[in-house]
Every structure is written in C-alpha cells, then in structure tokens.
Amino acid sequence: MFQNLLFDLDGTLTNSAEGITKCVQYALRDQGIEVSDLHKLEVFIGPPLRDSFMKFYGFTREQAEAGVEKYRERYTDIGIWENQVYDGMLELLQDLQADKRRLGMATAKPEVFAVRIAERFGFNPFLEDITGASLDGKTDKKALVVAAALEKWQLTTPEQKKTVVLIGDRREDVMAAHENGIACIGVGFGFGGYEELNAAGADYYVEDMAALHKLLLGK
C-alpha cells in the first residue's frame, strides 16, 4: 500500500462543521442574510470560502473577500476550536507511523490555522509536515496545496507519485490529487459522501474509520 500519505483536514482528520458553519452564518448575517439551518452551510466545507460565497450566494468578488474577512473575525479565536477529532483517527495515525509510513497534512485551509489545530488536537507527533493555503488566497486551490506538499517531500516524478495518496472527503480532494498525478482515497465519514466522491473519480472509497484502517494497513 502507499508509503506517503497526505491527509485533508476538514471532514477527514476532524469534524469541523460547527465552527465553519457558524462562522459562515456570522459572515452572511453581516451582509443581511440570515441562515438558521447550519446544515445548509456545510457546502462551504472544503472549497475556498471566496468561491463558495460567490457560487452559493451570488456575491461579487469584492463582497466575497469581505465575507472571508468577516468569517475570519469569528473563526480565528472561536470557530477554530468548535472542532472534533474523528473517533479512531489518532489511533490510525499512530498505527501508520508505527508501520513506517510518511504522514503529512494537505489542506486548503490557511496554513496558520491548520498548524494551530494540529497542535491543539494532537496531530503533531504523527505529521512530518503541514501544508496549507496562504491567507491572501493566492494558494487556496487544493491542487496548489498538494503540489506544494509534493515539492516539500521531493516526490515529483511519475514513479515517485505512485507511492503517494491523498485522503479526503470532497470532490476538490479527488480533483487535486488527480491534477497532481496521485491517487485519492475518499472517506464517507466527512462531508462529501459516496455519490460526490464516486462522481469525481475517487480511486478508493471507504465508509468509515475501520474501513480506512483496513485499506491502509490490511487489518
């Protein structure tokens, strides 16, 4: 199985729905839009925030940038911690590390936030590297993040890339992996689900943590 593993953050390592949706709700309210059902805002989990404000609420680019700033106003010290590690994830990382796998994080979330989350929730002992987006939005596309992670690990040839897999829960993860010539494992316990991941062309699909453990470690 794959020697080099890159994990997505939101919807893969942690269930971040509460923090993200409440911060989106906060940003929309600032624009005079009230959304009481937070589940409707889970579409914001995964893709770049700016793009989602424009896609789902018809914001102009300027409005979307303002929405991102308002979102971060609440997220930086409140929403970031409204977050839970998925049951069994730390144990999986520990087992993978014991099996001599190389583990990293690749997330479209700004890297400064990803680093804080990794430290708070206990991921640091297992992750060799954390690669995220820049705050200015110039590298918020998942494909750019994955490319940067591969560069850090010097895994850039087609043969080297056969040893790498990205583990994520949204179509953006599948597309980013394939744009970079690596495989993707789609997880059903996040926010995308089987239909989305299958339609995107995920190379593997696992429904739960036990299935992911079995796929990666054969037990």
Structural description of this entry:
The chain has helices spanning 17-30, 49-57, 61-75, 89-98, 111-120, 142-152, 158-161, 171-179, 193-200, 209-217; strands spanning 4-7, 14-15, 84-85, 102-110, 129-133, 164-168, 183-187, 204-206. It is globular, with a radius of gyration of 17 Å. The chain is built from ten helices and eight strands. The protein has a six-stranded parallel sheet, with helices on both faces. It starts with a strand and ends with a helix. Strand 7 (183-187), helix 9 (193-200) and strand 8 (204-206) form a beta-alpha-beta unit. Helices cover 45% and strands 16% of the residues. The model has no long low-confidence stretch (mean pLDDT 96). 43% of the residues are buried. It has 219 residues and is of the alpha/beta class.
Quick overview:
With 219 residues, the chain is an alpha/beta fold. It has helices spanning 17-30, 49-57, 61-75, 89-98, 111-120, 142-152, 158-161, 171-179, 193-200, 209-217; strands at residues 4-7, 14-15, 84-85, 102-110, 129-133, 164-168, 183-187, 204-206. The relative contact order is 0.17.
Q: In percent, how much strand structure appears in the residues?
A: 15-25%
Mean pLDDT: 96
Multimer state: single chain
How many separate helices?
10
Unreliably modeled segments: none
Helical fraction: 40-55%
Please write the string of helix (H) and strand (E) elements: EEHHHEHEHEHHEHEHEH
- Give the terminus-to-terminus CA distance: 12 Å
**Rough shape?**
globular
Describe the largest sheet.
6 strands, parallel
Tell me the strand order in the biggest sheet.
5-4-1-6-7-8
Gyration radius, to the nearest Å? 17 Å
Structural class: alpha/beta
Number of strands: 8
